[in-house]
Amino acid sequence: MLQTRLHAKCDKIFSVSVSIIHMEDSKIYRIRDMKDDDISQVLDIDLDAFPTQWPHPTFTSYHHELRNKLAHYIVIYRSNDPQPPAEEKPLAEGSPRVLSFIRGLFNHGRFFGLGKPSPPKEYLAGMAGIWMMVDEAHIVTIAVRKAHKNQGMGEWLLISIIQLAMQLNARTVTLEVRLSNTIAQKLYEKYGFTKAGIRKKYYSDNGEDALIMTTGDLTSSGYRLKLQQLTQAHRERFSYCYTGM
């Protein structure tokens, strides 16, 4: 009955064959392309998900990325509540969010002629991005706020970014992942990524090596069937609502 009532609310994502809505505590989440107004929240998500990463992205870097024809970014947003959730309160001085705010004062491009971004109109829970290089899509980031961990959103972003790569005529998807991050590696293996090599001392925060992983041929009927089955299983597990074109 719940899905029947929501059926008419499902909307298209990237004009691919299915659309997705995530239900969490009676809230509706959708995925769309990233835009300039999202950057301040994207920076918070990045810092929340990767607190030890250095250097961190800046407003200026994301501003340029959104104008890079090779780059494609998406966000998960809460469509029925424009305000951050009640549990997100100002934290003590020195907390990551305060540091993010202070860093944002210098990253919003005010010294580079870009102007201050508009206030966020929608709450963002996660984001992901790829670079297209001929027929290969390279995942540059997948990040979800800690408050939304273990809710299927990271996997939803992975599904959506693979679908986006298919729409952009990619034949393969590649990524780097920390050697110590076995949980992420298992998720990628689930979606057909296999180990392809090592990048030595790839991560600047601790000098850790990165594992290179890549999919097989995205255009093959076998991979498309597998992705369809995994997407259906994910929907059933996390109460997603899918509609056709």
Structure description:
This protein is an alpha+beta fold and 245 residues long. The chain has a single domain (10-171, 217-238), classed as Gcn5-related N-acetyltransferase (GNAT) (Aminopeptidase), CATH 3.40.630. It is built from seven helices and nine strands. It has helices at residues 2-6, 39-49, 59-65, 96-107, 153-167, 182-190, 221-238, and strands at 19-24, 27-33, 71-78, 123-133, 136-144, 172-178, 194-199, 210-214, 240-243. A nine-stranded mixed beta sheet has the order 7-8-6-5-4-3-2-1-9. Strand 1 and strand 2 form a beta hairpin. The longest helix is centred in the last third of the chain and has 18 residues, at 221-238. The radius of gyration is 18 Å and the shape is globular. The relative contact order is 0.17. Mean pLDDT is 79; it is low at 1-19, 82-95 and 97-113.
The CATH class, by name, is: Alpha Beta
Q: Do you know the CATH architecture?
A: 3-Layer(aba) Sandwich
Find the count of extended strands (DSSP E, 2+ residues): 9
Specify the structural class: alpha+beta
Write the layout of secondary structure elements.
Layout: H1 2-6, E1 19-24, E2 27-33, H2 39-49, H3 59-65, E3 71-78, H4 96-107, E4 123-133, E5 136-144, H5 153-167, E6 172-178, H6 182-190, E7 194-199, E8 210-214, H7 221-238, E9 240-243
Parallel strand pairs: 5-6
Antiparallel strand pairs: 1-2, 1-9, 2-3, 3-4, 4-5, 6-8, 7-8
Keywords for this structure?
globular; disordered N terminus; 7 helices; 245 residues; alpha+beta
Q: In short, what is this structure?
A:
The chain has about 240 residues and is an alpha+beta fold. It has helices at about 1-5, 40-50, 60-65, 95-105, 155-165, 180-190, 220-240, and strands spanning about 20-25, 25-35, 70-80, 125-135, 135-145, 170-180, 195-200, 210-215, 240-245. It has a single domain, classed as Gcn5-related N-acetyltransferase (GNAT) (Aminopeptidase).
